[in-house]
Design a protein that fits this description.
alpha+beta, 17 strands, elongated, binds manganese (II) ion
Length: about 450
């Protein structure tokens, strides 16, 4: 009885804050700063973005679109966002201040019985909870856009699909066109390059969330090192790891987990994860969790029975050496992650691999390093970002050399997550996870 009374009070206190509380969110000011930074890139234009609608067949439940989340911290479906840059008065159009509106669908009490309470536009605390200057009902979007459009038209930035793709924005944009929201000449531009440029550099709050994703994922890798032995199935390891990072606050895998034994270790995006691990195999484990929308990306390669053969260790040491060489060559403000030019740390890794060891035919091993050295991580495991500029403070990315020799059934990849701190120092976020062949064998022996 007492318990029930306590629960009732709790419900009264918390029932009014209906924004999904499951995700750890940054302070509202962080999302606001991103919206203002975007407004400065709009060149007087308007940005309109739409959150996807909730589908009832989503395996892990609704997940907000990355760009929408980046600008709002809002994890609920079917909202929309408008950002209009300030503009000065011109001939026929009056001056306009910076404007931001979050549009939310009206409460649907029947739907909320199925999918849970949502924040509605008429909830008294909506601006306080979301940190937006204005929160309006979605139905008003057409009128609000029409109010902001100068008579001579403008540029409207949105999430336009690439050829053959769909985006959350296409259908609502078509509807807005039909509703004559877009008076005057409206030129559509894709917002993705602007968003990619903003997302290239992470703020302190994002780095904190990435650290948590990495730490939970590293713990899962340690559990895999203890559980690994001949006779277990790839999916046993995959399931164990998902349990371990979820237990530490992750919501889902950051990508399809790869647990590949023997020949499968040489298949880059192997995802069947259903073979039995054999004595003498190496097992590539490329698996990590997503924490509060932020993705880690970690790979380790383990000897199935706890001891590398001489040949496996030789290949392993070369991959590890290439990762070390790339990290050592890193210069903030100069190095690039892609390409084979002299300022690329990918070239450093390739050259290391190509000048160490040989295949069974006496050929150098460079040709077995068949993918890029790394990529940004963030809201997406292959995060949007500007790859044309050098790596510098605030960027978070992977360094993941690999050698894959199908003929020998040996694939080795070692992948860690790195952050460039404010002083330009390269910080390995996954540093406490065993890395060298000796460290891996030792961690596996400690069962
Ligand atoms: Mn990766």
């Amino acid at each position: 009885m007492k318990k029930r009374a306590v629960f009732f009070v709790f419900f009264i206190l918390c029932g009014c804050v209906s924004l999904a509380a499951a995700l750890e969110r940054q302070p509202n000011a962080d999302y606001r700063a991103r919206r203002e930074a975007l407004a400065k890139k709009l060149d007087g234009g308007i940005a309109v973005l739409f959150a996807p609608v909730e589908r009832d067949d989503e395996v892990y439940g609704f997940r907000q679109a990355d760009n929408f989340y980046y600008l709002t911290g809002n994890s609920e479906p079917a909202g929309a966002l408008l950002i209009a840059a300030a503009r000065e008065a011109k001939e026929n159009s009056p001056a306009r201040p910076y404007t931001e509106i979050l549009f939310l669908p009206a409460h649907n009490t029947i739907q909320e019985k199925w999918t849970g309470p949502k924040l509605g536009p008429d909830d008294g605390n909506a601006t306080q909870v979301t940190g937006f200057d204005h929160v309006e009902v979605l139905d008003k979007m057409r009128d609000e856009i029409a109010k902001l459009l100068p008579p001579r038209g403008t540029v409207l930035f949105s999430d336009l699909p690439n050829f053959g793709e769909t985006s959350a924005s296409v259908v609502p944009l078509e509807w807005l066109q039909r509703s004559n929201a877009f008076v005057g000449r409206v030129e559509f531009k894709d917002i993705k390059p602007l968003m990619a440029s903003l997302r290239t550099t992470k703020d302190a709050g994002e780095v904190d969330l990435l650290r948590k994703a990495v730490s939970a994922s590293a713990a899962a890798h340690k559990a895999a090192m203890k559980a690994m032995k001949p006779g277990v199935n790839e999916h046993d390891i995959s399931a164990l790891m998902q349990y371990e990072w979820n237990k530490r606050g992750c919501d889902r895998p950051a990508y399809a987990p790869i647990v590949g034994t023997g020949f499968n270790s040489t298949v880059l995006h192997y995802s069947a994860d259903d073979a039995t691990i054999q004595n003498g195999d190496v097992v590539v484990i490329d698996a990590a969790g997503e924490y509060a929308m932020y993705a880690a990306d970690i790979t380790r390669t383990l000897p199935a029975n706890g001891k590398f053969t001489a040949r496996q260790r030789e290949i392993y040491d070369i991959v590890y050496g290439a990762q070390q060489a790339a990290a050592a060559a890193f210069v903030s403000g100069k190095s690039k992650i892609l390409g084979r030019e002299s300022d690329s740390i990918a070239k450093v890794a390739y050259d290391y691999i190509n000048t160490h060891g040989k295949d069974l035919h006496g050929e150098p091993l460079g040709k077995y390093f068949i993918h890029g050295l790394g990529h940004y991580i963030g809201l997406n495991v292959h995060d949007e970002g500007d790859y044309t500029i050098p790596l510098g403070p605030g960027m978070v990315f992977t360094i993941e050399p690999g050698i894959y020799i199908p003929e020998e059934k040996i694939g080795v990849r070692i992948e860690d997550d790195y952050w460039v701190d404010a002083s330009g120092k390269l910080v390995k976020l996954s540093a406490d996870l065993p890395s060298t062949a000796d460290e891996v064998e030792k961690a596996m022996a400690a069962k």
